[in-house]
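Reopening: structure tokens for the 3-methyl-2-oxobutanoic acid complex, inputs below.
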Amino acid sequence: MAYLQTDVTKVTTRVLQNMKLHGEKIAMLTAYDFSMARLLDRTKIDVVLVGDSAANVMEGYKTTLPITLDEMIVYASAVVRAINRALVVVDMPFGTYQGNSKQALASAIRIMKETGADAVKLEGGEEVLESIQRILSAGIPVMGHLGLTPQSINKFGTYAVRATEEEEANRVIHDAHILEEVGCFALVLEKVPAALAGRIAKEVKIPIIGIGAGSEVDGQVLVLQDMLGITQQFKPRYLRLYGTFGDDISAAIQQYISDVKTVAFPNEKEQY
Ligand code: KIV
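Re-run output (same inputs, fresh job):
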């Protein structure tokens, strides 16, 4: 299939808007380090998200809450050094934007200045509107995130699918419209019914990127290590495995151990 935006040398928020207009789906994946980001940069991936899922994937925490702004900046600047084409979006970590719009702006400015990323993402709707407005007023593009918002896991008490009841579904619709009106360039919708996500994608003009939100949205995002089969213990229904690299890595390491023990490595050509 010929993609409409293949010739684009740098994906911008405007390119994403065009993709939505022309019905070309947006492909987004996470990255947290230079080596993986280099592999992503060899492809035509549209958006690279330095997600606060780094707290789980890179640091082994059960939730995304503990990761700090300093840590996100280290991960994000490594990713930015590797990426030429994709739009790089950085998650604002828990506690750096909620309830204090001045702090939100200061956090977003640090991310943009110290990493060279293209945009920030933050979780929530009306309750974080003031923070979003202030960040946008500094010319920093903001991606919203509604539905399952993992930074609120202690409020939800579960990672189960959100907005299955009318009241919450209406709130998500309301928030999506508010985030569009205030000027977010795109929204992530996480783990909501496909029909709801499809309805929102039709109603708003900005791209809706789904994760566990069905196919009627404008694009998809997955955590890279999940879809590659590296984070093997995490298998939600929405996840499609595009590889079994966890098993491949373990097998390679097992072979290395065996070669070292049997002195099959190094051989004559592998020494000086
Ligand atoms: O942190 C993250 O990786 C995310 C995606 C799951 C959307 O927010």
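DSSP finds eleven helices and eight strands in the chain. The longest strand covers residues 142-147. Marking as resolved unless the reporter disagrees.
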